[in-house]
Design goal:
Layout lengths: L5 E2 L5 H11 L11 H6 L7 E5 L2 E6 L11 E2 L3 E2 L6 H17 L6 E5 L3 H7 L4 E5 L5 E5 H6 L6 H13 L2 E4 L6 H12 L6 H18 L7 E8 L2 E12 L2 E9 L6 H11 L7 E3 L7 H9 L4 E3 L1 E6 L2
Parallel strand pairs: 12-13
Antiparallel strand pairs: 1-2, 2-3, 3-4, 3-5, 6-15, 7-15, 8-13, 8-14, 9-10, 10-11, 11-12
Helix pairs in contact: 3-4, 6-9, 7-8
Amino acid sequence: MIIFKNSFENMTKEDARLLGEYFRGFDYRGAGYTLLANYIWRNTHCLCWEIIGDYLCIAGADCMITDKPNAIISMPMTRTGSYDPASLREAVMEARRRFEQRKIPFSIELVPGHMVQYLEEAFPGQMDFVRDRDSDEYVYLKDKLISLSGRALHKKKNHMNYFLKNYEYEVKPISRDMTEQILDFVVRIREVRDYDADELESLRMEEEAIREMLQLVEEPKVYSAAVFADGSLQAFAIGELLSGDTAVEHFEKANDDYRGLYQVICSEFCKMLPEEIVYVNREEDMGLANLRQAKEALKPDHMEERYSGRFIV
């Protein structure tokens, strides 16, 4: 569903330069608020964009749904570092008009908690905001993920120590010439479990995003680590710079047959990050019980809350 006139699929270098000014224009503190994240998911989430007044508006849809119109927008983005209530109101109302023309319910999703205030100022008493717990993002201290120190992480540290004591391994940053090796590994670990149709489609969408990410893995602000054991790839992680002191880990995969390997790949990815990085955003749990348990067990330093905004009338 095309809401705005520009597609990330046809993004030019000039488009990338312009969009970069908006993505860098504010500390959004969200894994989805980077140019790279929007680019790698551009096809699977049907992403489109347009500059409306002073703001960059991005719309996306669930490309798996084809029987009815569906779309959302995320928080409009500024290039100036500030939000003006009147101009933000104009941009949102124009976006809303586009939705109404297509008979699509309008909502603003994945609004960072610290940014709800700007929409409330633009629409006093006119919008209702509900926390979307499934989309809250987990943020950890980098040094804690490296060392797994402290009583609360004792079990995780034991798992990591088991791997370190029982396996010889090598860690490398990922390069573009490892693309097919990484993708073959992703398919291999997917095939060892049974998934329903929706889960398989979601995993295939993720594989497409990983393929796109691998084409940019050698860019300066992209970080990665791959663990080789028993002569072959057994785990990898890829992320990027999110803000001055925070990195985001977009993808992490490991072979479950190796006890402690998930702890090791997380630690090794963090070791690859620049010294000035203090925090690592490891994204949301999507409401999946096992994923939530695993992320909570690593004891995040804090959560970046996400909200859904809808007009009351």
